[in-house]
Amino acid sequence: MSISKSLAVKIKDCHYTCIDIYPNRNNWVNYQQFDGNTIPFGDKTYDIAIFSDVLHHDFSNIESLLTEARRVAKYIIIKDHFEYGFFSRKVLQIADFIGNYGYGVSIPNRYLSQDYYKDLIDKLGLLELNRTWPINLYPNSLIAGVIIKKEFQFISILSTENHT
Ligand SMILES: C[S@@+](CC[C@H](N)C(=O)[O-])C[C@H]1O[C@@H](n2cnc3c(N)ncnc32)[C@H](O)[C@@H]1O
After folding, report:
1. Across the strands, what pairs with 154?
2. CA–centroid distance, residue 140 to ligand 1 (Å)
3. At 76, which helix (H) or strand (E)?
4. What local confidence, expressed as pLDDT, does residue 103 receive?
5. Which protein residue has the closest C-alpha to ligand 1 atom 1?
6. In angstroms, what is the span from residue 54 Cα to ligand 1's centroid?
7. Where is the signal peptide (predicted)?
8. Which residues of the chain have pLDDT under 50?
9. Whose CA is nearest to atom 14 of ligand 1?
């Protein structure tokens, strides 16, 4: 919600709705709870759909969420994690536990690999226009920066035009 809010400040005539499976107990504005599968908007309602650290939380719905985002938006921006084996998976699980446990968000048992991500977007006919990777999310923390490696973080921009 903070990301959308700051984009709306920077971009003229920017309208946004944030969606999540989390109930709207706090009367958040521009927020809608949904079923985690079917995005509750019409075809090409939005220019951009953003998944910020969401997809790795629900592997069972990754394909339907991206298929739905392809229907609803012209572009998809994904911020997520890449894992490379046991160490990266454990580090990311610990970071997810610290960041999310208090909110009742489930901790994933795996993360996307680069091969999985490539196969996924190819399968769904999405075209990757740009990838920012690696990303140093913790430039001011030596410890976090060493443990949570910059190779674990990526941002990918996808076009939803038909590329199959
Ligand atoms: C790490 S939090 C990220 C929250 C927010 N997007 C952000 O960037 O701060 C992961 C979020 O994914 C949500 N989530 C889990 N499964 C989901 C699904 N199938 N569809 C949409 N959101 C889901 C959780 O409820 C949680 O809010």
Report:
1. 80
2. 26
3. strand 73-81
4. 85
5. 53
6. 4
7. none
8. none
9. 54
* Sheet (strand 46-52) strand order: 46-52, 73-81, 153-159, 127-132
Q: Is the dihedral of CA 83, 80, 149, 95 positive or negative?
A: negative
pLDDT one-digit tens code per residue, 20-67: 999 999 999 999 999 999 999 999 999 999 999 999 999 999 999 999
**For residues 46 and 69, is the Cβ–Cβ distance under 8 A?**
no
**What does the block give as tokens for 23?**
């109930």
Q: Where are the domains of the chain?
A: 34-159
The yes/no answer on whether domain 34-159 falls in CATH 3.40.50.150 is yes
**Which two three-digit tokens encode residue 18?**
């944030």
> What is residue 164's predicted lDDT score, i.e. its pLDDT?
59
Which of 35, 30, 38, 108 is CA-nearest to residue 66?
38
- Give the model's pLDDT for residue 163: 63
